[in-house]
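**User:** Everyone, produce a chain:

**Assistant:**
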Amino acid sequence: MDAPLQDCTIEEQHGVVRFLWVEGVKPVEIHRSVLAQYGQSTMSQRKVYDWVEKFKSSRTLVTDEGRSGRPSTSCSRKASSTQEYRN
């Protein structure tokens, strides 16, 4: 019985990238293989290259690292009150 590969996690795809890279498969071929299996849920070719570079740098984890700091967008009282005066 085949598992529905369209329902996958990004970590699963990272693991596939790592496995195929260790096997000596080139990043462009890795992306083609992942695309064939996961369809529209596939990470971009650029992301495959980025993850191959991470694995070349001795990374073993397939999960994204947490980020620190403020989110790129924020909503504050000052910003909302400024908009009120403009209207």
